[in-house]
Structures are given as C-alpha cells and as structure tokens.
C-alpha cells in the first residue's frame, strides 16, 4: 500500500459544490408545492455533473446515480443531500469502493479495490480505515489482518506470507515491539522489531523525519508509512508452536456513537409513528407521539461533529 493510495481514496468524491439552490441546471421530474425537486428526477447540474434518482423536498434522498464530470460515479443511497447508507463509488482511475457511507464519507463495513490490484476489506470511520480489516497486497500475495486506526495499521495484527505468518504489534503501518513468526503451526521464532532509519535513505531534510508525530490532527496525506524508516527484526529463540505463546489477537475498536446517531434514532421513531397513522388518524389524535414534542424539530443542517 503506497502513500498515494490515501490520496486516491479521496480523488473523485468531490465536485458537487455547495448546497443546491435555484437556479441550478436543467431538471426533469417531480416537484413539491414549493417547486423544489421531490420524488424521482433527472438533473444536469451547472458544473456538468448528472444526477438521476430520488429527491426529497429539494435534496437528493433515497436511491440515485450521480455521475461526476471527471468520470467518477456513485450509485447508492442518499440522505439529506449526502451519500449515506450503502453505495458503490467508481473513481476516475478505475478504483472502486463498495460499502457503507455516512455524511459523504466511507463509514462502516466496506471494501476498497485499488488500481494496482490491492484490496482492503473491513471497517471505516469518517472516511479512513478504522477497526478490524484485511489489506491484501496482490503483487506479493501477502495479507495483513489487524486493527486500523485513522487509516493506518495500529495495534495487534497478523501478516500472512505464502509460507509463514507474523504475529505482533504495529505502529504507523510498521511492525514494532515483541512478536513472533510461525511456520506451518509447528515452530515459532520469537523476537522483536525495532524501527530504525534507513542508512541508504537520502537524508536531505532528515531533521523533519521522525517516527512519532507531533501533530494531533495530521492531514490525510500524512497518514502513510514514515519515510526513511525501516523495521529491523531481532530474533531471540525458537520454540515449538503453542497458541498460548502467541501475541494478543486483533480486536474490534470501540467507536463512541456521536449525538448524530441519537438524532437518527429519533428520526426513525418519528417516521415509524407517522407511517402507523393511516385511515384511523382522526380517531387517534389524542394518542401521544413516542417522541417528546420538544424533540420534534428540524435538525438536518446541524453539524454536531463541529460543535
């Protein structure tokens, strides 16, 4: 996995501009009483992008196909004008993501197919690999299964080589600390990895190279493997294979639900309540809603993540 892959994942997802406002291109389809796009429709946007699918009071909402002028395309679910739910995104260079989205970002279970044949299958959080996942390096037939944090290998992991495995801990995509190699579940070589500067690396500006970053919020392009750093294996001893001697296995990451998740639940309850009122609505007006009245507010434009 190269550092360029991180930039590739973001390429092609933008290009829609800001919120949709009239006038904004050509449109054919349903409209509501306010003449906003509503129901099924097809739109040619001023920037050359094309959308065909469902609208809800002026916003893309439901299933639809969005074709970007740069060649990218997204087909899947929308919510309040954003990619939200399950959908497939085809990038201009042929790479593809199939999985879940939330607020226009890859979020949840999904699979990313890279142009060089590599794949990542696992969990995402706010657009980055985060949680349990498996990255497959096609050219060398090697897979890495483990824990990912903010786009990089962090914590316990297992690398499966064609004839042996490595079990250990990772930091910033590199193995570090105690670990062991296993061979056909018969023998184990114990030792540890240390991360050292590559003597063959051209250290022009080497003072900027460091294993431990100081930026608490690094940009996406800086989330690759530290350059000029190589992991060195130090073997200690060889034993028979015993599962109790293996390092800790990768475990799922606990992701704290944001307040937006609670709002999603409230909206779902509201929808279920309104769908349950049909022909007998007049006879049941006195029945209280399962959602408190002070919570029945319009909340789609509130971005609680930035509060």
From TrEMBL:
<feature type="compositionally biased region" description="Basic and acidic residues">
    <location>
        <begin position="8"/>
        <end position="29"/>
    </location>
</feature>
<dbReference type="GO" id="GO:0035082">
    <property type="term" value="P:axoneme assembly"/>
</dbReference>
<dbReference type="InterPro" id="IPR003409">
    <property type="entry name" value="MORN"/>
</dbReference>
<dbReference type="GO" id="GO:0005634">
    <property type="term" value="C:nucleus"/>
</dbReference>
<protein>
    <recommendedName>
        <fullName>Radial spoke head 1 homolog</fullName>
    </recommendedName>
</protein>
<dbReference type="GO" id="GO:0007286">
    <property type="term" value="P:spermatid development"/>
</dbReference>
<keyword id="KW-0677">Repeat</keyword>
<dbReference type="GO" id="GO:0031514">
    <property type="term" value="C:motile cilium"/>
</dbReference>
<dbReference type="Pfam" id="PF02493">
    <property type="entry name" value="MORN"/>
</dbReference>
<feature type="region of interest" description="Disordered">
    <location>
        <begin position="1"/>
        <end position="29"/>
    </location>
</feature>
């Amino acid at each position: 996995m190269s550092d360029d892959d991180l930039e590739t994942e973001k390429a092609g997802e933008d290009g829609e501009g800001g919120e949709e406002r009239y006038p904004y291109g050509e449109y054919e389809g349903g409209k509501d009483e306010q003449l906003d796009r509503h129901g099924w429709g097809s739109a040619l946007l001023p920037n050359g992008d094309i959308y065909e699918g469902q609208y809800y009071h002026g916003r893309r909402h439901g299933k639809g196909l969005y074709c970007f002028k740069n060649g990218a395309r997204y087909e899947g679910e929308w919510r309040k004008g954003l990619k939200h739910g399950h959908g497939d995104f085809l990038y201009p260079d042929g790479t593809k993501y199939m999985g879940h989205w939330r607020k226009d970002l890859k979020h949840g279970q999904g699979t990313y197919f890279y142009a060089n044949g590599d794949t990542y299958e696992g969990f995402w959080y706010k657009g980055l690999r985060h949680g349990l996942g498996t990255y497959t390096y096609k050219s060398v037939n090697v897979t890495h299964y483990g824990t990912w944090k903010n786009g990089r290998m962090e914590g316990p992991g297992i690398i499966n080589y064609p004839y042996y495995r490595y079990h250990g801990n990772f930091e910033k995509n590199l193995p570090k600390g105690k670990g062991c190699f296993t061979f056909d579940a018969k023998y184990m070589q114990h030792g540890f990895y240390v991360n050292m500067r590559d003597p063959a690396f051209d250290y022009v500006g080497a003072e900027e190279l460091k294993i431990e970053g100081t930026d608490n919020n690094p940009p996406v392009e800086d989330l690759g493997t530290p350059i000029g750093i190589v992991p060195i294996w130090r073997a200690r001893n060889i034993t028979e294979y015993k599962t109790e001697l293996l390092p800790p296995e990768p475990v799922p990451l606990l992701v704290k639900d944001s307040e937006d998740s609670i709002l999603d639940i409230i909206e779902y309850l509201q929808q279920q309540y309104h769908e349950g009122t049909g022909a007998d609505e007049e006879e049941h007006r006195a029945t209280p809603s399962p959602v408190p009245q002070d919570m029945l507010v319009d909340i789609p434009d509130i971005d609680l993540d930035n509060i």
